[in-house]
C-alpha cells in the first residue's frame, strides 16, 4: 500500500532507537521506543481510517495483556488513545491507572489515523510485563470493523466492536531502547522494518500471520436466526393459529410451530455464546437479553398450551376451543410482539447503523400491519359463514343428531300450487 508522503513530513527524520513493523496488507505501522532509566513506553501507530480503531498490545494473547487502542476524537481531527487491560476473549477494559500523554503529531490526517505519544509507567501491569532486554518481545495488533458506526469520542472507556483483522508479531526491545522519544517515531515510515513480520501462530488460516475478516460470526448468526423467526415464521404461525378458516389444517400449524421453536432454540444458543464475548453482556442483564429469556419461556408455555389444546380436541366431540384455545391464540400474538420489540433492542445493543435500525422498524411494522389485515379478513369471512349457517339452521328442524330435516309427512298439495309445509304432528288424526 502506498504511504502518503504527508505522514513522513509530520516530523523530521531523526535517527533513534526504534523497533517497528509495517503490515502492508493492512496499511498499518506500529513502532515503540523505550527511553532508558524509566518505565515509560513511547509508541506510534498509524492505520487507514477505513477501520474504526487501531490497537497495539504487549503480549501474545489478550488475556493478561496491556493494549493501547486509538480512535478519532469527537471533533474528528484529534485522536483518543485508551490504555486497556485484556482479561480473556472479551474486549479489553479501560484502566485509569495507566496514563497516556499524546504529542502534537496525533491526528486524523487525510485517510489515516496517527497516534503518537507516551504511555507513562506502562512496562508492567496486572498479569504481565514488558521484557526490556529481548529480541523477540511478543506483540499483537488489531483493527476495528469498518462496517459499524465509526467511533468519534473523547471517552477512553467507549465501547468498541470486535476486531475485523488482527495478528501477532515480535519486536526487539533491545533495538527499541535508547534516546529519541516520540519525535523520532513519526519518521519510521521511511525506515526498513526492524521487527519480525507477522508471526504465523494461527495455523493454516493465516499463512502470512494475518487474520482478516474476523467478524462477529456468533452475533451475526444470532441476528439472522431471530430475524427469520420474527419476520417470516412468526407471522405465518400467527395467521395459522388465529384464523378460524384455517383451523381445519392443524398439521400445517404444528409443523410451522415446530420450526418456529427450533429457530428460537438456535437463536437462544448463539445469543448466549455471543454474550460471553463482551463484558457488557456477560451478566445477561441488558434489556435485550432479559426480554429474550422472557420470550423463550413464553414460547415454551405456548407449546404446552398447544399440546393441551390438541389433546383436548381429540378427546372431546364438541371441538370447542374454550379458555385454553383463546389463551393459545392470543399468546401467539403476544409472543410475536415481544420478538419484534426484542429485535429492535438487539440491533441497538449491537450498535447497528441507524439505516439498519430504521429499515428493521419499517419492515417489521409493515409485516405487522399485513398480518393484522389478513386476520381481519379471515375473521370477517368466518363470521359471515357462521351467520349464514345460523340462518339456515333457524329456518328448519334439527333432529337429535344435529341433522337438519324437513317433515315429509306433512305435505299437502292443492292443484298445481307449491307444497305447503306444516308442522309435523304425529298425534293428528
Automatic annotation (TrEMBL):
Entry keyword annotation includes Membrane: yes
Signal sequence annotation: 1-16
Residues covered by the DOMON domain: 26-144
CDD domains the record matches: CDH_like_cytochrome
Alphabetically ordered keywords of this record: Membrane, Signal, Transmembrane, Transmembrane helix
Domain of life: Eukaryota
Stretches that traverse the bilayer: 220-239, 251-270, 290-309, 330-350, 356-381
Record flagged with keyword Transmembrane helix: yes
Stretches the record annotates as Disordered: 408-429
This protein's name: DOMON domain-containing protein
